[in-house]
Amino acid sequence: MNITAIEYEDSIIVVDCGLSFPDDEMLGIDLVIPDVTYLKENIDKVKGFVITHGHEDHIGALPYILKDINVPIYATRLTVGIIENKLKEHNLLKNTKRKVIKYGQSINLGCFRIEFVRTNHSIADAAALAIYTPAGVIFHTGDFKIDYTPVFGSPIDLQRIGEIGKKGVLALLCDSTNSERPGYTMSESSVGKTFDNIFADYAKQRIIVATFASNVDRVQQIINSAEKFGRKVVIEGRSMVNIITTAIDLGYIRMPENMLIDVEMMKNYTDDQLVLITTGSQGEAMAALSRIAAAIHRKVSIKPGDVVILSSTPIPGNEKAVSKVINELSMRGAKVIYQDTHVSGHACQEEIKLMYSLVKPKYAIPVHGEYRHKMRHAEIAQLMGVPKDNIFLINSGDVLTLSQEKGKVTGEVPAGGILVDGLGIGDVGNIVLRDRQHLSENGLIIVVVSLEKYTNNIMAGPDIVSRGFVYVKESENLMEEARVVVEKALEKCLSRNNTEWGKIKSEIKDSLSDYIWKKTKRNPMILPIIMEV
Amino acid sequence: MNITAIEYEDSIIVVDCGLSFPDDEMLGIDLVIPDVTYLKENIDKVKGFVITHGHEDHIGALPYILKDINVPIYATRLTVGIIENKLKEHNLLKNTKRKVIKYGQSINLGCFRIEFVRTNHSIADAAALAIYTPAGVIFHTGDFKIDYTPVFGSPIDLQRIGEIGKKGVLALLCDSTNSERPGYTMSESSVGKTFDNIFADYAKQRIIVATFASNVDRVQQIINSAEKFGRKVVIEGRSMVNIITTAIDLGYIRMPENMLIDVEMMKNYTDDQLVLITTGSQGEAMAALSRIAAAIHRKVSIKPGDVVILSSTPIPGNEKAVSKVINELSMRGAKVIYQDTHVSGHACQEEIKLMYSLVKPKYAIPVHGEYRHKMRHAEIAQLMGVPKDNIFLINSGDVLTLSQEKGKVTGEVPAGGILVDGLGIGDVGNIVLRDRQHLSENGLIIVVVSLEKYTNNIMAGPDIVSRGFVYVKESENLMEEARVVVEKALEKCLSRNNTEWGKIKSEIKDSLSDYIWKKTKRNPMILPIIMEV
Description:
- With 533 residues, chain A is an alpha/beta fold.
- Helix content of chain A is 32%, strand content 23%.
- Chains A, B: Its cofactor is Zn(2+); Ca(2+).
């Protein structure tokens, strides 16, 4: 959920506008977008979004945020293409200004000048941003790695970064993702060699490769291997079809003529003539590969001998889901390959050091990563000569004020995540999540009783209904005894003329909850409902 | 959840009796135990449990299963000690027979003779079992690794395994956990060197080490480093205190005199005089380290400069929880170390090959691991000369019949997991879990209405109550409109004299569910309740 506002007097620019995926405890939530209250309150100052690259965690919140912050979007060509796909889906294409910026080109927004600098990442057209402000230059790397032999385009523009650094940079905001990993990240093109080897080893088998939809260079390399070994290519999975189509249209993927075939056409080819490229390398339940593995995909089914390449490393939290897919594919007789079939898109320690050597900033602000990664990054920055006091480990919402003289966290703005559930944006908060958590672990018991108006005589009930608690047929005794407990609680209240509903409800709740705990050591949600008839 | 029954005519012995921890989708479940229907039905044949080692996934279900299958337990000394702890907690000590068996010793159970053979693992006193049956010898490795320099006791008894193999082994059941990893697993004692280095590097700081409660050799090495560097030892976390106390009592841990102090005494010592050994290395929410990291531990709080060693690798599925703990500790200023501080307790590929070289079984039955691990193990077995048709990738519940002539899966017995939730064993099944899943993702809406007997006039309601759906205060309109939708559905039914409750309920459910989906793209559980007054 990357988003950074840079403000000077009456100008604000916003770097990136990403979403994040829900944590395990955010039950039922589809996605999380940033809180942009501060931008809304200062909408007159906001000059535009400058976007570093086309990954969901850098662009995904745009369709939601644009409704409130409708300012122009500036990005490189492929990034704009991917954003346009999103805008189309949300019917926002017509009302959103966007502009393609080339590497080396600068734009002026308010008092800022922003230069887009070529970098490498696991998606083409990634850019770092040199932001020229009246207070000095801010250099934002975005997500980056240093790839001397990229699959598409040129290596990161180290010369220009050196030149910018030489003239003096106030602050460096640099990617921390791989700051715990020593050494260098391998070149993307090293994966192509692995693909060639696998295609050679399994020349007779059908090959299925799963990878990230957005990794167009990875897909290009699969296409290259397919071309060498005379295979047709099938692309499966909605997000992959979307991005790859855009990448082909814009010339970021070279697809030989007559090579791409529709999934329906697979039956006309033999196994050794086919490679299927698909989403689902992270074990996402609804993605194509997971459905193929579970044998619920309508068009593709695994047969013994198929070779499945997982061309990605599980993102923390996805390990079990990925393992499940590997097990299912294995059980259906597929050979699953997942070693040396992926490289990271992020800079390791030596690359981060190189970035500091070129930029030599006055202030270091580690970004993109968990706290542990930013902390390790801070150690690297210190090693590279940035004084400890000039390194800022800031949190979401912190306002960091920088000048040539000093840097200081001077305030805070609202910054939490806004939960998106279905069409609702922000209507699921902590209370709702806490209830979902409670329900998920213990289920619920509903007690309904009808009381007569004025007299408070019991007219019907108490009836007890439960869901997610126990299988009632096997626990009839328990439920019957629970009813007796509730009856006694009711009698107790009513006999004492204790007829305030709040009191009756809490008496029912307390006594039933005690009884259930004693009998089962469980703690279901108890919901007493009183009707007045 | 390891458990294997071996049967010949009227004799059955059971190897291990483990539990497993719930999968993510087993909402609210505490633990899972094996279905032993087959053993219950053949209780007269069952001669005893023979246990390979004292880990939860090999002994944890005993207290639950013993209630039905009350036969003697045979295991090595530490294993029996740990089992006795469990029996005490469950009040089963008095009624359970158990016997300590030494390495090299054999016992006779029915027609079987079982010899306990020394192995190495991440808990002391691990044993392989040579089971002499009228049909031939079955060799079961249990969980094992080959450690030439173990911390406690002697290396695995490779000589005896060779001797048993030389005489002829019918079937080898061998650990598959690390079958995907090439090479050898490092010796446990290599971790001791890392500890010494860390203790030397951080001589002034307080050191906290988190590891598995059951890894007594690991704890011994921490104690050794503490002794060298003149630190007192505090042990924190209930399961660790239990196991370590047992290990000290039985002589499996050498604790120098006056070295172990109570957590309350920590305040009398300076940072450089202390090491705290604790549970929670897997990020388990209720374990000591997680509570310390979250600053909700009553007795220990992190201060800047503290050094925390995570002496374990995250088990798949726990990565995010571990990362959360690392982030929290880092934010409180602790230095967190987790590299080279752990070795596995399971055999890698070369060790598995060595086992096959010594045992040279007729049949190979890969055990202990997911399908992907067993499949890789099968490839190794084949490489080591076991014919493909003699390798059995069997599933839980499969009945494999072996003779010198042939091996074949000849049947199936009930084998799924029985879910334990609080005191309930097996009363939470698929329906309850499905409800919990539904509730967890979408929450619920309850509709209550009172109808008059005979006339079916609406006497009260419809009232709508929701939990885990939306924050009602912010969605008053939605809920009010929902009430109108329900009223219309009711009127429709009643006006047509469609007064069967089932029909009324499904009409309410369908119309409300349509309305809610249209408005929110959400799918809460809808629970119509009708009261007759």
